[in-house]
Amino acid sequence: MEYIRESPYLQYFLGYEGYKDEIPFDPSIMVHFRKRLSGNIMKEINALIIEKSKADDEGRDDGDEGKDAGEGEAKEPENNGALIVDASCAPEDMRFPHDVTLLDEARRKTERIIDTLQKRAPEGYEKPRMYRKTARKEFLTFIWNRKPRERTIQKAIKKQLQYVERNLRIIGDYKGIVGFKGLSGKQYRDLVVISELVRQQRDLSTHKSRSIEGRIVSISKPHVRPIARGKARGMYECGAKLSVSLVDGLSEVQRLSWEPYHESQDLKGQIETYRQRYGRYPEVVCADKIYRTRENLRYCQEYGIRLSGPKLGRPFKESEKNRAILREHRRIEREDESTRIALKASLGKGNGDTHLI
Fold first, then answer.
1. What angle (nearest 5°) sits at the alpha carbon of residue 281, between those of residues 276 and 284?
2. Which of 38, 175, 176, 182 could form a disulfide with 120 if both were Cys (CB 3.0 to 4.6 A apart)?
3. Which is nearest to 158 in space by CA: 191, 190, 135, 140?
Protein backbone atom coordinates (compact mmCIF):
# COMPACT_ATOMS: atom_id res chain seq x y z
CA MET A 1 0.00 0.00 0.00
CA GLU A 2 2.84 2.39 0.80
CA TYR A 3 4.46 1.59 -2.53
CA ILE A 4 1.23 2.45 -4.38
CA ARG A 5 0.86 5.66 -2.36
CA GLU A 6 4.40 6.79 -3.24
CA SER A 7 4.43 5.73 -6.92
CA PRO A 8 2.63 7.91 -9.51
CA TYR A 9 3.25 5.19 -12.11
CA LEU A 10 1.22 2.61 -10.18
CA GLN A 11 -1.54 5.12 -9.53
CA TYR A 12 -1.73 5.85 -13.27
CA PHE A 13 -1.90 2.10 -13.92
CA LEU A 14 -4.76 1.82 -11.42
CA GLY A 15 -6.72 4.52 -13.26
CA TYR A 16 -6.21 7.59 -11.07
CA GLU A 17 -6.74 10.94 -12.81
CA GLY A 18 -3.93 12.52 -10.82
CA TYR A 19 -1.39 11.79 -8.11
CA LYS A 20 -2.80 11.44 -4.59
CA ASP A 21 -0.67 11.14 -1.46
CA GLU A 22 -3.00 8.71 0.27
CA ILE A 23 -3.55 4.97 0.66
CA PRO A 24 -5.96 3.95 -2.14
CA PHE A 25 -7.80 1.22 -0.23
CA ASP A 26 -7.58 -0.95 2.87
CA PRO A 27 -4.72 -3.48 2.75
CA SER A 28 -7.07 -6.31 3.76
CA ILE A 29 -8.63 -6.17 0.28
CA MET A 30 -5.37 -7.61 -1.09
CA VAL A 31 -5.91 -10.71 1.06
CA HIS A 32 -9.34 -11.33 -0.48
CA PHE A 33 -7.86 -10.80 -3.96
CA ARG A 34 -5.09 -13.34 -3.35
CA LYS A 35 -7.61 -15.91 -2.11
CA ARG A 36 -9.22 -15.85 -5.57
CA LEU A 37 -5.93 -17.08 -7.08
CA SER A 38 -5.94 -20.81 -6.32
CA GLY A 39 -2.93 -23.07 -6.64
CA ASN A 40 -4.09 -24.34 -10.05
CA ILE A 41 -4.45 -20.79 -11.38
CA MET A 42 -0.94 -19.87 -10.21
CA LYS A 43 0.39 -23.04 -11.83
CA GLU A 44 -1.28 -22.13 -15.14
CA ILE A 45 0.20 -18.62 -15.00
CA ASN A 46 3.64 -20.09 -14.33
CA ALA A 47 3.27 -22.48 -17.28
CA LEU A 48 2.24 -19.61 -19.58
CA ILE A 49 5.34 -17.61 -18.60
CA ILE A 50 7.60 -20.60 -19.33
CA GLU A 51 5.89 -21.29 -22.67
CA LYS A 52 6.26 -17.63 -23.68
CA SER A 53 9.96 -17.67 -22.81
CA LYS A 54 10.44 -20.93 -24.74
CA ALA A 55 8.65 -19.51 -27.78
CA ASP A 56 10.89 -16.43 -27.76
CA ASP A 57 14.02 -18.60 -27.59
CA GLU A 58 12.80 -20.83 -30.44
CA GLY A 59 12.02 -17.74 -32.54
CA ARG A 60 15.61 -16.54 -32.22
CA ASP A 61 16.99 -19.98 -33.15
CA ASP A 62 14.77 -20.56 -36.21
CA GLY A 63 17.03 -18.52 -38.48
CA ASP A 64 20.03 -20.77 -37.90
CA GLU A 65 18.20 -24.07 -37.91
CA GLY A 66 16.00 -23.34 -40.93
CA LYS A 67 18.80 -24.09 -43.37
CA ASP A 68 19.07 -27.73 -42.32
CA ALA A 69 15.32 -28.31 -42.14
CA GLY A 70 14.07 -31.18 -44.26
CA GLU A 71 17.51 -32.71 -44.82
CA GLY A 72 17.75 -36.38 -43.91
CA GLU A 73 15.29 -38.52 -42.03
CA ALA A 74 13.56 -37.45 -38.82
CA LYS A 75 15.68 -38.48 -35.88
CA GLU A 76 15.02 -38.64 -32.21
CA PRO A 77 16.31 -35.36 -30.74
CA GLU A 78 19.45 -35.72 -28.68
CA ASN A 79 19.44 -34.97 -24.99
CA ASN A 80 20.23 -31.35 -24.30
CA GLY A 81 19.96 -28.89 -21.44
CA ALA A 82 20.18 -29.10 -17.68
CA LEU A 83 17.32 -29.74 -15.29
CA ILE A 84 17.81 -28.70 -11.66
CA VAL A 85 15.47 -30.24 -9.08
CA ASP A 86 15.18 -29.91 -5.33
CA ALA A 87 12.63 -29.91 -2.52
CA SER A 88 12.08 -27.47 0.30
CA CYS A 89 9.67 -26.55 3.06
CA ALA A 90 7.82 -23.23 3.07
CA PRO A 91 7.64 -22.55 6.83
CA GLU A 92 4.45 -21.19 8.35
CA ASP A 93 4.36 -18.21 10.70
CA MET A 94 3.38 -20.13 13.80
CA ARG A 95 4.61 -20.98 17.25
CA PHE A 96 6.90 -23.98 17.48
CA PRO A 97 4.66 -26.86 18.56
CA HIS A 98 4.91 -28.42 22.03
CA ASP A 99 2.33 -30.88 23.28
CA VAL A 100 1.93 -29.25 26.69
CA THR A 101 1.58 -25.74 25.23
CA LEU A 102 -0.88 -27.03 22.63
CA LEU A 103 -3.04 -28.69 25.28
CA ASP A 104 -2.95 -25.56 27.44
CA GLU A 105 -4.24 -23.54 24.47
CA ALA A 106 -6.96 -26.15 23.90
CA ARG A 107 -7.94 -25.96 27.57
CA ARG A 108 -8.28 -22.17 27.48
CA LYS A 109 -10.35 -22.28 24.28
CA THR A 110 -12.73 -24.90 25.71
CA GLU A 111 -13.12 -22.80 28.86
CA ARG A 112 -14.24 -19.83 26.76
CA ILE A 113 -16.65 -22.08 24.86
CA ILE A 114 -18.16 -23.20 28.18
CA ASP A 115 -18.54 -19.55 29.23
CA THR A 116 -20.42 -18.84 25.98
CA LEU A 117 -22.74 -21.82 26.42
CA GLN A 118 -23.42 -20.95 30.05
CA LYS A 119 -24.96 -17.63 28.97
CA ARG A 120 -27.62 -19.54 27.02
CA ALA A 121 -28.25 -22.09 29.76
CA PRO A 122 -31.67 -22.03 31.51
CA GLU A 123 -31.98 -20.04 34.71
CA GLY A 124 -30.80 -21.95 37.75
CA TYR A 125 -28.44 -24.24 35.82
CA GLU A 126 -25.24 -24.40 37.87
CA LYS A 127 -22.01 -24.03 35.96
CA PRO A 128 -19.69 -27.05 36.46
CA ARG A 129 -16.33 -26.55 38.09
CA MET A 130 -13.38 -26.44 35.65
CA TYR A 131 -10.29 -25.93 37.93
CA ARG A 132 -8.98 -23.04 35.83
CA LYS A 133 -6.54 -21.63 38.37
CA THR A 134 -5.16 -25.04 39.29
CA ALA A 135 -4.59 -26.01 35.64
CA ARG A 136 -2.95 -22.68 34.83
CA LYS A 137 -0.69 -22.91 37.87
CA GLU A 138 0.44 -26.42 36.91
CA PHE A 139 1.16 -25.29 33.35
CA LEU A 140 3.24 -22.29 34.48
CA THR A 141 5.17 -24.50 36.90
CA PHE A 142 6.06 -26.76 33.99
CA ILE A 143 7.16 -24.09 31.50
CA TRP A 144 9.35 -22.38 34.09
CA ASN A 145 11.41 -25.57 34.15
CA ARG A 146 14.26 -24.88 31.76
CA LYS A 147 15.19 -28.48 30.92
CA PRO A 148 12.38 -30.79 32.03
CA ARG A 149 12.98 -34.51 32.07
CA GLU A 150 10.98 -36.91 29.94
CA ARG A 151 8.99 -38.09 32.93
CA THR A 152 8.11 -34.49 33.85
CA ILE A 153 6.93 -33.79 30.30
CA GLN A 154 4.71 -36.86 30.21
CA LYS A 155 3.23 -35.98 33.59
CA ALA A 156 2.42 -32.43 32.43
CA ILE A 157 0.82 -33.76 29.22
CA LYS A 158 -1.32 -36.17 31.21
CA LYS A 159 -2.58 -33.44 33.54
CA GLN A 160 -3.44 -30.95 30.78
CA LEU A 161 -5.05 -33.72 28.74
CA GLN A 162 -7.32 -34.64 31.64
CA TYR A 163 -8.42 -31.01 32.03
CA VAL A 164 -9.27 -30.74 28.33
CA GLU A 165 -11.15 -34.04 28.34
CA ARG A 166 -13.14 -32.85 31.36
CA ASN A 167 -14.05 -29.64 29.52
CA LEU A 168 -15.16 -31.61 26.46
CA ARG A 169 -17.46 -33.73 28.61
CA ILE A 170 -18.96 -30.55 30.06
CA ILE A 171 -19.47 -29.16 26.56
CA GLY A 172 -21.19 -32.43 25.63
CA ASP A 173 -23.65 -31.89 28.51
CA TYR A 174 -24.36 -28.34 27.33
CA LYS A 175 -25.05 -29.67 23.82
CA GLY A 176 -28.01 -31.62 25.11
CA ILE A 177 -29.38 -28.57 26.97
CA VAL A 178 -28.77 -25.50 24.76
CA GLY A 179 -27.12 -26.92 21.62
CA PHE A 180 -24.30 -25.21 19.73
CA LYS A 181 -26.27 -22.38 18.12
CA GLY A 182 -24.69 -19.84 20.45
CA LEU A 183 -21.16 -20.65 19.26
CA SER A 184 -19.48 -18.66 16.53
CA GLY A 185 -18.11 -20.36 13.43
CA LYS A 186 -14.56 -20.08 14.74
CA GLN A 187 -15.48 -21.57 18.13
CA TYR A 188 -17.24 -24.52 16.52
CA ARG A 189 -14.25 -25.09 14.22
CA ASP A 190 -11.87 -24.95 17.19
CA LEU A 191 -14.06 -27.43 19.04
CA VAL A 192 -13.84 -29.94 16.19
CA VAL A 193 -10.05 -29.53 15.95
CA ILE A 194 -9.60 -29.85 19.73
CA SER A 195 -11.65 -33.06 19.79
CA GLU A 196 -9.32 -34.59 17.19
CA LEU A 197 -6.27 -33.22 19.03
CA VAL A 198 -7.39 -34.88 22.28
CA ARG A 199 -7.95 -38.16 20.47
CA GLN A 200 -4.44 -38.06 19.02
CA GLN A 201 -2.80 -37.11 22.31
CA ARG A 202 -4.67 -39.84 24.19
CA ASP A 203 -3.65 -42.38 21.56
CA LEU A 204 0.00 -41.31 21.81
CA SER A 205 -0.11 -41.48 25.60
CA THR A 206 -1.78 -44.90 25.67
CA HIS A 207 0.57 -46.54 23.17
CA LYS A 208 3.63 -44.58 24.38
CA SER A 209 4.33 -43.52 20.81
CA ARG A 210 5.96 -40.40 19.36
CA SER A 211 4.30 -40.25 15.96
CA ILE A 212 0.79 -40.52 14.56
CA GLU A 213 -0.68 -40.00 11.12
CA GLY A 214 -2.11 -36.54 10.46
CA ARG A 215 -0.74 -35.10 13.68
CA ILE A 216 -2.14 -31.68 14.60
CA VAL A 217 0.49 -29.14 15.66
CA SER A 218 -1.64 -25.99 15.60
CA ILE A 219 -5.29 -25.45 16.51
CA SER A 220 -5.63 -22.39 14.27
CA LYS A 221 -3.86 -24.18 11.37
CA PRO A 222 -4.79 -27.85 11.67
CA HIS A 223 -3.70 -28.57 8.09
CA VAL A 224 -0.02 -27.87 8.89
CA ARG A 225 2.20 -30.89 9.42
CA PRO A 226 5.78 -31.23 10.70
CA ILE A 227 8.17 -31.84 7.80
CA ALA A 228 11.45 -33.65 8.53
CA ARG A 229 14.30 -31.68 6.96
CA GLY A 230 17.34 -32.76 8.98
CA LYS A 231 18.93 -29.31 9.13
CA ALA A 232 21.44 -28.34 11.80
CA ARG A 233 19.16 -25.77 13.39
CA GLY A 234 16.25 -28.20 13.69
CA MET A 235 15.11 -31.62 12.54
CA TYR A 236 11.59 -30.47 11.69
CA GLU A 237 9.91 -27.53 10.00
CA CYS A 238 6.19 -26.83 9.99
CA GLY A 239 4.76 -25.85 6.64
CA ALA A 240 4.10 -27.02 3.10
CA LYS A 241 6.61 -29.23 1.32
CA LEU A 242 7.21 -28.48 -2.35
CA SER A 243 9.23 -29.97 -5.20
CA VAL A 244 10.70 -27.35 -7.56
CA SER A 245 12.46 -27.62 -10.92
CA LEU A 246 14.58 -24.94 -12.60
CA VAL A 247 15.35 -24.66 -16.33
CA ASP A 248 17.11 -21.66 -17.90
CA GLY A 249 16.41 -19.49 -14.86
CA LEU A 250 12.65 -20.27 -14.81
CA SER A 251 11.42 -22.25 -11.80
CA GLU A 252 8.24 -24.33 -11.59
CA VAL A 253 6.56 -26.01 -8.64
CA GLN A 254 6.00 -29.65 -9.52
CA ARG A 255 4.23 -30.65 -6.30
CA LEU A 256 3.03 -28.93 -3.14
CA SER A 257 1.68 -30.91 -0.21
CA TRP A 258 0.97 -30.31 3.46
CA GLU A 259 1.68 -33.98 4.13
CA PRO A 260 5.30 -35.22 4.18
CA TYR A 261 6.48 -37.26 1.20
CA HIS A 262 9.73 -38.51 -0.36
CA GLU A 263 10.85 -36.05 -3.03
CA SER A 264 12.66 -38.71 -5.10
CA GLN A 265 9.23 -39.93 -6.26
CA ASP A 266 8.80 -36.70 -8.27
CA LEU A 267 11.96 -37.01 -10.37
CA LYS A 268 10.39 -39.03 -13.21
CA GLY A 269 7.47 -36.61 -13.45
CA GLN A 270 9.81 -33.62 -13.58
CA ILE A 271 11.87 -35.21 -16.36
CA GLU A 272 8.76 -36.12 -18.37
CA THR A 273 7.44 -32.54 -17.97
CA TYR A 274 10.77 -31.30 -19.37
CA ARG A 275 10.44 -33.67 -22.36
CA GLN A 276 6.84 -32.63 -23.13
CA ARG A 277 7.79 -28.96 -23.02
CA TYR A 278 11.11 -29.02 -24.92
CA GLY A 279 10.65 -32.16 -27.07
CA ARG A 280 13.75 -33.88 -25.68
CA TYR A 281 15.21 -35.27 -22.50
CA PRO A 282 17.72 -33.23 -20.48
CA GLU A 283 21.38 -34.04 -20.79
CA VAL A 284 22.00 -33.75 -17.05
CA VAL A 285 19.79 -33.60 -13.97
CA CYS A 286 21.38 -31.76 -11.05
CA ALA A 287 19.83 -33.09 -7.87
CA ASP A 288 20.58 -33.88 -4.26
CA LYS A 289 21.81 -37.30 -3.12
CA ILE A 290 18.34 -38.21 -1.91
CA TYR A 291 17.21 -38.42 -5.56
CA ARG A 292 19.86 -41.03 -6.41
CA THR A 293 17.73 -44.10 -5.75
CA ARG A 294 18.28 -47.28 -7.74
CA GLU A 295 14.98 -46.83 -9.55
CA ASN A 296 15.82 -43.25 -10.58
CA LEU A 297 19.31 -44.26 -11.67
CA ARG A 298 17.92 -47.04 -13.90
CA TYR A 299 15.38 -44.61 -15.37
CA CYS A 300 18.04 -41.99 -16.18
CA GLN A 301 20.40 -44.60 -17.61
CA GLU A 302 17.63 -45.92 -19.88
CA TYR A 303 17.15 -42.49 -21.50
CA GLY A 304 20.81 -41.43 -21.51
CA ILE A 305 20.47 -38.84 -18.73
CA ARG A 306 23.33 -38.17 -16.36
CA LEU A 307 22.14 -37.83 -12.77
CA SER A 308 24.55 -35.73 -10.73
CA GLY A 309 26.26 -36.97 -7.60
CA PRO A 310 28.49 -39.87 -6.58
CA LYS A 311 27.67 -43.48 -7.36
CA LEU A 312 25.86 -45.69 -4.91
CA GLY A 313 27.86 -47.93 -2.61
CA ARG A 314 31.43 -47.74 -1.40
CA PRO A 315 33.62 -45.18 -3.23
CA PHE A 316 36.56 -46.34 -5.34
CA LYS A 317 39.97 -46.42 -3.71
CA GLU A 318 42.31 -43.98 -5.42
CA SER A 319 45.34 -45.47 -7.17
CA GLU A 320 47.80 -44.57 -9.89
CA LYS A 321 45.53 -46.04 -12.61
CA ASN A 322 42.26 -44.35 -11.71
CA ARG A 323 43.56 -41.12 -10.16
CA ALA A 324 42.90 -39.01 -13.25
CA ILE A 325 39.41 -40.50 -13.68
CA LEU A 326 38.48 -39.84 -10.04
CA ARG A 327 39.73 -36.26 -10.27
CA GLU A 328 37.55 -35.71 -13.34
CA HIS A 329 34.54 -37.15 -11.49
CA ARG A 330 35.14 -34.83 -8.54
CA ARG A 331 35.44 -31.86 -10.91
CA ILE A 332 32.09 -32.71 -12.50
CA GLU A 333 30.49 -33.09 -9.05
CA ARG A 334 31.74 -29.64 -8.04
CA GLU A 335 30.33 -28.13 -11.24
CA ASP A 336 26.97 -29.80 -10.62
CA GLU A 337 26.88 -28.50 -7.06
CA SER A 338 27.65 -24.97 -8.24
CA THR A 339 24.84 -25.29 -10.81
CA ARG A 340 22.39 -26.24 -8.06
CA ILE A 341 23.09 -22.95 -6.27
CA ALA A 342 20.72 -21.18 -8.67
CA LEU A 343 17.80 -23.28 -7.45
CA LYS A 344 18.79 -22.79 -3.83
CA ALA A 345 18.58 -19.03 -4.37
CA SER A 346 15.18 -19.43 -6.04
CA LEU A 347 13.91 -21.54 -3.13
CA GLY A 348 15.14 -18.98 -0.62
CA LYS A 349 13.30 -16.19 -2.39
CA GLY A 350 10.21 -18.37 -2.83
CA ASN A 351 10.07 -19.27 0.86
CA GLY A 352 10.10 -15.59 1.69
CA ASP A 353 7.31 -14.85 -0.80
CA THR A 354 5.05 -17.57 0.62
CA HIS A 355 4.53 -15.42 3.71
CA LEU A 356 2.83 -12.86 1.45
CA ILE A 357 0.42 -15.34 -0.15
1. 135
2. 182
3. 135
Alpha-carbon distance 357 to 342, whole Å?
23
* CB-based contact 229:238 (threshold 8 Å): no
pLDDT greater at residue 215 or residue 325 = 215
Pick the CATH number of 43-60+81-92+236-356 from 2.60.120, 3.30.420, 3.10.20, 2.40.160: 3.30.420
pLDDT in the model for residue 24: 78
Q: For the chain, list the strands marked E by DSSP.
A: 82-91, 226-231, 234-247, 250-257, 284-286, 306-307
As beta bridge partners, residue 240 has 90
Span 177-193, pLDDT tens digits: 989 988 999 999 999 99
Domain locations in the chain? 1-36, 43-60+81-92+236-356, 99-207
For 15-34, the three-class secondary structure string (H helix, E strand, C coil) is CCCCCCCCCCCCCHHHHHHH
Q: Judge whether residue 354 has pLDDT over 50.
A: no
Q: Which residues contact 23 (CB under 8 A, 6 or more apart)?
A: 1, 2, 4, 5
Predicted TM-score of the model (pTM): 0.73
Q: How far apart are the first and last CA of the chain?
A: 15
Distance CA 162, CA 156 (A): 10
Distances from the Cα of 233 to the Cαs of 150, 210, 354, in angstroms? 22, 21, 21
Mean pLDDT (whole number) for 9-36: 86
